[in-house]
Backbone:
């Protein structure tokens, strides 16, 4: 197990955003965390990337405890937040340069690795342009490039295709597959796009109101609800009951998502 | 699973780096080195941003210029303020430098709220750089901004005939004082940003703080003419010690009101304390 959570919980006041989550990921798999807005996906990722301390429970990432060995965890993970993490006031090259320095990539390897990453992501031509001028798809690719520059063992992608047009989305999917294939990186991504999860993930976990309500390979889940031909949408509705979202804090979340979508689109 | 597209070079993706062994007992030198290196990286990041868009530095210089040119010139004629052996303009020029350092640093915290709203902060916080280095890097870059203001104010002061001290040691002292001063107020500002978390509240508090900090100091009048209650406030205001050091170093013939060593000791000590507090509170801004 490269990642294992035990009763991982996060409360905001009386709201339980993540409720005793037990999850384990095998090395090299692509795992999708599915759920509507407010289901607790982003909060889970923030805890696993040590940005947010859990209220209860713990997790082991690549052999390190997120509570007591946070510094070591940060060395072996890559993280692409849902918001925009590339700095618009810098060029693509500069964004990667700073990332390389923050992750202590040796000086002798730095330039060559940055060049290779830019090449891999198809950004060599625009490397010295300000990121502010990039398209949404280019920004996402740059963000993924900076998250894998230090060759993390686990890569966390929070809604990697939110706000992207279909072409850019397919490109991001291809890159995710290639990263897994070439690096053997374990990838944990969140999404609320069912087709994305179906195409990309070896296994998916469905989160609803902070709890994991189902967890298996997409096909196995379809079989489990007695409809092998079902779409993942139907599986999703089966497990979450399709009820209207009742969690609080929707305004802030919605405002953020739309802002990101506007900036990327 | 689709096969790899030909032509795409996955050379970046050689092999995962070996996971670091469960190392690290107590290694103070390694930690200090890490601290210095990462502080420098964050300052470099900010400096690169400034290089792409330096407009802010010029707009920021307008206000101190007005203070020197208008307020300074007028009060120099009035001769209402006893400034000992210095002319009023000589007396206030270091105060205006301190003021512009204060103004450029005290709103610096808002950049953190901005970066949090964007998402850039999440990326930096998930990196292995120590929290203390993240905040001291910000403080150092506020110092760099402060130095650009110093250059502009020196130029203006020289034009106005202020009796500047151009000795290298004195200039070096000014550089250190400006960096420490900017670090002080930018860290204070970061701490406020981590506590209030939204831009609107932050701007409100920033406005409320700036003027009292400025007026309860020896920037534009000496401590001696203040009422005693204000003297007490001025003596716990770090700006007073920054002004005191700047005045002694910048102006020929000026003598510090406190020993210079005390000025620098207070600036360094408050910087260290503020780094510790800010590093502690920094992760909160994400929540």
Residues:
């Amino acid at each position: 197990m490269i990642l294992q959570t035990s009763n991982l919980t996060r409360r905001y006041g009386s709201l339980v955003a993540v409720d005793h989550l037990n999850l384990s990921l095998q090395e090299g798999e692509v795992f999708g965390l599915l759920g509507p807005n407010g289901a607790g996906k982003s909060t889970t990722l923030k805890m696993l990337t040590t940005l947010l301390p859990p209220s209860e429970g713990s997790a082991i990432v690549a052999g390190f405890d997120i509570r007591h060995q946070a510094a070591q965890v940060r060395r072996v993970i890559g993280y692409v937040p849902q918001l925009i993490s590339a700095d618009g006031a810098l060029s693509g090259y500069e964004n990667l340069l700073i990332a390389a320095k923050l992750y202590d990539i040796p000086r002798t390897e730095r330039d060559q690795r940055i060049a290779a990453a830019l090449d891999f992501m198809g950004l060599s031509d625009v490397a010295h342009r300000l990121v502010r001028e990039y398209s949404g798809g280019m920004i996402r690719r740059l963000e993924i490039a900076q998250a894998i520059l230090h060759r993390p063992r686990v890569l966390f992608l929070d809604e990697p295709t939110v706000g992207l047009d279909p072409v850019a989305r397919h490109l991001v999917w291809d890159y995710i597959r290639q990263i897994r294939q070439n690096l053997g990186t374990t990838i944990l991504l969140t999404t609320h796009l069912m087709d994305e999860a179906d195409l990309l993930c070896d296994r998916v976990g469905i989160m609803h109101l902070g709890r994991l309500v189902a967890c298996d390979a997409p096909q196995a889940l379809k079989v489990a609800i007695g409809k092998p031909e079902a779409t993942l949408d139907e599986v999703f509705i089966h497990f979450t009951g399709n009820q209207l979202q009742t969690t609080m804090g929707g305004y802030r979340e919605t405002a953020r998502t739309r802002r990101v979508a506007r900036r990327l689109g | 699973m689709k096969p790899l597209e030909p032509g795409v070079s996955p050379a970046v993706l050689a092999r995962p780096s070996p996971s670091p062994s469960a190392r690290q007992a107590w290694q103070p030198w390694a930690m200090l080195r890490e601290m210095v290196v990462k502080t420098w990286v964050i300052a470099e990041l900010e400096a690169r941003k400034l290089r792409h868009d330096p407009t802010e530095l010029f707009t920021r210089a307008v206000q101190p210029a007005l203070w020197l040119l208008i307020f300074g010139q007028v009060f120099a004629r009035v001769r209402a303020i006893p400034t000992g052996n210095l002319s009023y303009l000589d007396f206030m020029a270091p105060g205006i430098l301190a003021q512009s350092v204060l103004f450029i640093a005290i709103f610096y915290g808002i950049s953190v709220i901005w970066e949090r709203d964007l998402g850039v902060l999440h990326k930096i916080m998930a990196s292995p750089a120590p929290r203390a280095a993240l905040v001291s890097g910000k403080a150092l870059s506020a110092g760099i901004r402060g130095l650009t203001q110093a250059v502009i104010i020196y130029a203006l002061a020289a034009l106005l005939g202020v009796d500047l001290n151009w000795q290298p040691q004195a200039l070096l002292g000014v550089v250190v004082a400006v960096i420490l001063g900017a670090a002080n107020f930018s860290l204070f500002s970061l701490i406020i940003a981590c506590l209030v978390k939204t831009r609107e509240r932050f701007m409100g508090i920033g406005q409320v703080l700036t003027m009292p900090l400025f007026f309860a100091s020896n920037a534009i009048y000496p401590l001696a003419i203040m009422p005693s209650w204000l003297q007490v406030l001025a003596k716990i205001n770090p700006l007073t010690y920054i002004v005191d050091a700047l005045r002694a170093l910048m102006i020929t013939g000026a003598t510090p009101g406190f020993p210079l060593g005390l000025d620098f000791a207070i600036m360094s000590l408050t910087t260290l304390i503020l780094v510790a507090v800010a590093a502690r509170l920094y992760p909160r801004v994400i929540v």
In short: Chain B touches chain A at residues 1-2, 4-5, 8-17, 19-20, 22, 24, 38, 41, 44-45, 48-49, 52-53, 117-120, 122-130, 283, 286-287 (CB under 8 Å). Confidence is low (pLDDT under 50) at residues 1-22 of chain B.
